[in-house]
Structure formats: C-alpha cells, structure tokens
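Worked example 3. Consider a protein that binds guanosine-5'-triphosphate.
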Amino acid sequence: MNRTMQTPSGRRRSISDPLSVALQPPPNESQAEREGRLRQENDAKKRSDNIDKMLRETDRRNRKKKTIKVLLLGQSESGKSTTLKQFQLLHTPAAFNSERIAWRFVIYLNLLRSVRRILDAILPDADAGHGGADDDEYLDPSEAAPILISANGHAPSAAAARDSGSAAHLERYIRALSPLFAVEARLLQQLSDPEDNVDKEATHLPGQSSAPPAMQHGLPDAAAGPAAYPPLPPPPHANEADALSRIVIPAGSRSLPNSPVSSGEPTVRTTSNWKKAFALGKPKSEYSGEVEGWWADRNDPVHTINHCAPYISQLWRDRLVRQRLHEKRIRLEESSGFYLDEIDRITAKMYIPTNDDVLRARLKTTGVTEHSFTLANSDFRGVEWKIYDVGGARHQRHAWAPYFDDVNAIIFLAPISAFDQVLAEDPRTNRVQDSLQLWKDVVANKLLGTVNIVLFLNKCDLLKEKLNNGVRLRHYISKYEGHNDYQSVYQYFYNKFGAIHQQYTPNKERELYIHETSVIDTRSTKTIIMTVRDIILQGNLRNTALI
Ligand SMILES: Nc1nc2c(ncn2[C@@H]2O[C@H](COP(=O)(O)OP(=O)(O)OP(=O)(O)O)[C@@H](O)[C@H]2O)c(=O)[nH]1
Ligand SMILES: [Mg+2]
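Given these inputs, the predicted complex is written out as structure tokens:
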C-alpha cells in the first residue's frame, strides 16, 4: 500500500515515488536542520509559484495578441467581397450601417449598366456589326461574360427586330433614356481611380445635338412609334427636366455613348476612400448612420434616375425588348447587380439601400481590402481576426502570393452556377474550368500546406434557378452523365472539388470543409460563418499547440 506525504507546496505525494523518497527529511534531523530545510523548501516554492505566474501571464498575453488571418480567394465575381460584407454585417454592424448610403451610387451604376445592356441589345441593326454570324458573344472581352450566357450553337433570329415598326419603337427607348449616360459617366468618373483602371478607355460623349428640345430632355417622341405599341409615359416631373443631362442619341444611331470603362463595370481601388467621398452630409442617426437631404440637391443623380424610372420600367416590361434579349440569350436576371425588378423602390428620391441591396451590389475589387474584428462573446476573447479580400480577375491574382506566408486559413469561393459562362477577361475560358484550375493551384501550393481550407460552393441559388429554367450541365460539361436536377449537379461539383483536394494537397492530413452557399443570403451565411469561424479557430489553435 502506498503511503503519502505532504510537500511544502501542499501537494501530496506517494512515498513509493522516488522523488518523494529523496525529499523525505533525514531520520536524525536536528531542530536547526529542520528549520533550514523548511526555509529552503519555502524559497523553492516561491520561485516555482513565480514561474507559474509568469507562464500564465505570457500565455494570456500571447492569446491576446493572437491574430488569425483569413484570405478570401476565388475568381472574379465568385462572391469574395459579398462574403466580406457578411462578416462585417455579423461582427461590425455599426460600420456596415455607416457605409450603407455610399452603396446607393454603386447600386445606381449597377442599374444603369443593366439599362445599357438592354439598350445595346435593342439598338437598330445591332446585329449588323456582328455580320449576322452565329453567336460570337465570347469573341469580345468587353462583352461582360456574367451577362452573356454561353451559346447553344444556334444563330439568333433577328426577324422581329428587323421589322421597321418595332425598330422605331425600340429606338424611342434609347432616346428617352439617353440622359442616363451622362449620369453613368459622372458616377464612374467619381468612383474610378484613373491610375488604376486598366479597363479605362476614352470617354466619348456626343456633344449638343440639333434634336428637338423635348428629345434633349429624354422625352419620348410620341410620333416616332407605330400606334400598335403603347406610348411611353409622360415625364413625371417636367419642371425637373432642366436638371437632366443634355446627352442625346440621334435618331437611327447605331451606337450608344461609350461607357467610361470598357467592361462597363465599376471598379474601385481598395485604398481609395470612396465610401467616405460618397457618404454625403452628416449622419443623421447614430444607429444607422443614414443621412437625409440629398434629394434637395439638384445635382444629385437621383433626379435624372427618378425621372427616367418610368421609361426604364416600361423598357424592362416591354414584350419586344424581352424577345430581343431572349434572341440574344441575355439573361439579366442572373447577372450581378440586378435591380430591374425593383425599379420604383431603387429610383425613389429618398431611397436608402437595404442590407440585401448592399449585398447584391456589384463593385469589382482591385488591390486588397482588410477587415479586422475581435469576438466579443467567446471563450477565445482577445483573438483578433483579419479577413483579406482580394481582386479575383486574372490580372489581380499576382497580389495574392504575398499573403500566403503567414495566412492561417483560406476561404475559397467557387461559383458553381457559372458552368455556362466564360471569364470576362478571357472569353475562351469557361468559368467553372477556371475555378477548378485555381482550386488545384491553391490546394497544391506547398506554402499553404498547413493552412486550413474551407470551400464555399457558391451561388447555389442561381444554380437552382438555372437548372429549373432548363439549362443543361451536359451541354457544357460533356463528361457529365448524371441527372440535371439540383442535388445531382451539386453533388457532382462537390465530388469534383473534393477529389482535386485529395489528389493534389501536399498535406494528406488536412481536412477539407465544403459548404453549400448563397452568400447573398444573410441568414444561412451567418450560420455558416459562425461554423467556419470555429473550425478555423480550432484548427489554428491545434496547429500552434495552444490546445
Ligand atoms: N445570386 C447570388 N449572387 C451572388 C452570390 N454571391 C455573390 N453574388 C453577387 O455576385 C456579384 C459578385 O460578387 P462579389 O462579391 O463582388 O465578387 P468578388 O469575388 O468579390 O469579385 P472581384 O472583386 O471581381 O474579385 C455581386 O453582385 C454579388 O451580390 C450568390 O451566392 N448568389
Ligand atoms: Mg471583390
């Protein structure tokens, strides 16, 4: 049976333990020896306690300073910035709210881009420039891939558009909406960084025209269209026409004024303080940071946009326009920054973007954006998170590598709805193919061998919609032999991305976490972000042997 003894530190030790035996006082210890020994033992205990305290303190300080760096990767339009917005909404809602009003301008630009896409499509003889050939959407990189959906090999029928009555009818929209081009040019100029915008081309705006004054204000020419078509609505506030731009499109014109950026996509350098520049006025509410009063400013773009709203609305609902878009296989509903179904709300004078509006706004990233936060209610209080959002277009990817050195986790976004689309920067490359290649490069990277990787198979909402609309995966991926329903297609992509990781990762121990996401959906994304946060934290702590 083991006996026990009490040490000076109060711990009980078994005397069968050799250390305990060695610590036992000599059997014939004198009183003086005993006092000396106890003094020594007490001193040793004090030193030991001090070391324990220092270690605890160092541990606490280390934890406090611990930073977890997460890199968002994926091709352009995969949803990286949208994911970052979701992190902001969850962790720094006050900052998100204070920036809300600045997004109004990006949303206007997105709306105007949709209008431009439609007008481009309905221009008289717009097919002429294409020589009436088969679909060649992918031949012109300036044709934004996310909007133009891949061809199915049939030449579009332009019979209806060649009808002269319908052409005149469609032309009237172009004239009625021409004031919007000046607004678009002005907003793009304000938002874009001229040094940074590689897409930039000369702004080309027609000068004053000899068109009748009514047309100069974008008012419809009632006599121009055949009676079979409903007349365009009268301007809602004719007295505001003065504030409208004077850019006009001459009748019969075959081109629109160029967008100041060739891709028509607003881009902003991440270092530029565009949100502040567009914040306008002083915040009114401490909670929302929302401001009021811009509608009193006659120069605010809302006046022109609001004035043109009924025409935009009619354009979007027009049977002939829809037919033209259908012939050209343009599905604006599936494109980024689509607001045409909510024109009245978006163009209202006192419009303030909702969370969903901000999440759906499209602003291409150049450079790198950093977002930091600490978790307030967590066992791991004091851990600082830094999320890095990068540009995903090909010419932006060189900026990723410097972050590989000390990143702790990667969230890779692959928009699997894009199986029928091509890259805007390279119209010969299918977007899912590009995602798979990029994924392979990331998972095979040796520098990232110990980094936690989370994969978001994103834009699942659009994937569902696309498959429901009858778009067939087999048409674009000939090897696919499964059914064309959502579950089968999702599983196919799940397996494909998973297999690449398994095959190419330099770290066979690494666990891969795959999530089915639609990152514009706040509720589901919030849950996913919280799960991912815990996975990353635990993985990282395990790596650094903190637990
Ligand atoms: N319907 C739908 N739209 C999405 C989803 N994720 C992102 N989007 C939209 O797609 C567009 C592009 O998303 P971004 O987050 O800007 O893409 P990005 O990866 O940051 O693109 P770059 O900055 O060019 O690298 C935005 O208009 C988003 O609102 C999604 O899951 N579903
Ligand atoms: Mg981005």
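Take a moment to read the result before moving on. Strands lie at 4-6, 12-14, 67-73, 267-269, 364-366, 368-374, 384-390, 409-415, 452-458, 512-516. The two ends are 36 Å apart (CA to CA).
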